[in-house]
């Protein structure tokens, strides 16, 4: 399989979908926003974007299945499955603020082998495939080289369910607010991971996530030289609903803080 060629096709599809999303940005009103759950929203833009992506991906790999946020295809592939978030950051989108992104990953069995994250408003396309470097708009990117959490900028996301872990999470926020350059919450996990990959953030962590939030960003971080794990330091970060991503230099320190607080 020519993953480089497939990645090029997926990039084009993600960017075209981003053009559609951008064209709809000023047309969103309260009456076109549906509520899937507490603090969990969907619009016709999410659904139509996913339909466009699914249709395009079927042309690229006809036998592959889908793990798609809006459920426009539930086909399951025996070997390959696309993992799609057509609009990561819907809450940002409906409020007219950035970032929000298209996120598309390809999994071979239980391994991510390709990922594309297109941040819509900045028109930044981050991508990587198994065996490649990581790229931003054609330029190779790497994670940062900062050595300590105290010199790092940390990203996170706020959970919208599983509030039984909230007090522990707030302790991690307190720690990083005091012991790093600061904490940022952008509202798009796919973008957060892409920003770790290109060195804008040193570390990112979040829980209550779904596979489509993280799958594409994971391989981009890894191919950019970063490390990814769950809160226990293990590999259950695609389906395990929690993730840590960072440059390799701060990884042990970063993980220790989160592990000690979030798994206590």
Give a short overview.
With 264 residues, this protein is an alpha+beta fold. It contains seven helices and 14 strands. The chain has helices spanning 3-24, 44-60, 90-95, 166-179, 189-197, 211-223, 251-262, and strands at residues 33-37, 40-43, 65-68, 80-88, 101-108, 111-119, 124-129, 134-136, 139-141, 153-156, 182-184, 203-207, 227-229, 242-246.
How would you sum up this structure, described in words?
With 264 residues, the chain is an alpha+beta fold. It has two domains: 3-141, Fructose-1,6-Bisphosphatase, subunit A, domain 1 (Fructose-1,6-Bisphosphatase, Chain A, domain 1, 2-Layer Sandwich); 149-262, 3-Layer(aba) Sandwich (D-Maltodextrin-Binding Protein, domain 2). It is 35% helix and 27% strand. The protein is built from seven helices and 14 strands. β10 (153-156), α4 and β11 (182-184) form a beta-alpha-beta unit. α5 packs parallel to α6 (211-223).
How many distinct domains?
A: 2
The beta-strand count equals 14
User: What is the rounded distance between the termini?
Assistant: 44 Å
- Give me the CATH superfamily of the largest domain: Fructose-1,6-Bisphosphatase, subunit A, domain 1
- CATH topology name of the largest domain, in short, is Fructose-1,6-Bisphosphatase, Chain A, domain 1
Query: H/E series, N to C?
Result: HEEHEEHEEEEEEHEHEHEEH
From the structure above, extract its key features.
264 residues, D-Maltodextrin-Binding Protein, domain 2, 7-stranded mixed beta sheet, 2 domains, globular, Fructose-1,6-Bisphosphatase, Chain A, domain 1, 14 strands, 5-stranded mixed beta sheet
